Description:
The protein has 265 residues and is an all-alpha fold. The protein is 58% helix and 0% strand. It has ten helices and no strands. The protein has helices at residues 30-56, 60-90, 100-111, 121-145, 151-173, 185-190, 197-200, 220-225, 228-240, 258-264. Helix 1 (30-56) packs across helix 4 (121-145) and helix 1 crosses helix 5. The radius of gyration is 19 Å and the shape is globular.
Amino acid sequence: xxxxxxxxxxxxxxxxxxxxxxxxxxxxxxxxxxxxxxxxxxxxxxxxxxxxxxxxxxxxxxxxxxxxxxxxxxxxxxxxxxxxxxxxxxxxxxxxxxxxxxxxxxxxxxxxxxxxxxxxxxxxxxxxxxxxxxxxxxxxxxxxxxxxxxxxxxxxxxxxxxxxxxxxxxxxxxxxxxxxxxxxxxxxxxxxxxxxxxxxxxxxxxxxxxxxxxxxxxxxxxxxxxxxxxxxxxxxxxxxxxxxxxxxxxxxxxxxxxxxxxxxx
Length: 265
């Protein structure tokens, strides 16, 4: 079984040529823009309502609970992206029902890591936006239908939805150089609020079995130290007989193309 290699200061992920995308679709479509705009608007309204509910409370305990709920949602979202990322990196292929397109996209991403930088915002976000668009309205409706639900519950749901919807953009920023980032993003990465290039670099180094979380990366250190993903892979293997890709010698489908490195130098 492959085990993570330790490194005190891994290099930042390689930056690739704009044309080196293995046929990834770079511009967004009108459908992708519509989905992203719709869920962005829904999240904005939901967040504004949730924080208004919290601010309307005269209780310090309620305000503290709302703040804790926001952090808990942010933390859970980071962990959830790690689980999802681990699944699509290690299991299935382009023909897998439901997740096939995502699995194929993540494999192409490993060949050309920085191709995500050159994709339009809506192209990056539309898949997560569709998923959130299905779940958020229903979950919000349930919370509003139940009497006495605290504002903290609304804050938790909406912050979780926002983080998950934006996760692929946070991931894309982890493949950019600081001068290329929007104002403030580099500072958030340096503070550990968002995933930084140096932290994400480990994920793009053989054996490609570590640092799966892509919002803040707060879970990456502890999960890698306790070899959580390897333990989970062992459980899956004993239950199903299916080996994860990380146990195999990296193939051309997962290796970063040499020209990417040349483009970065």
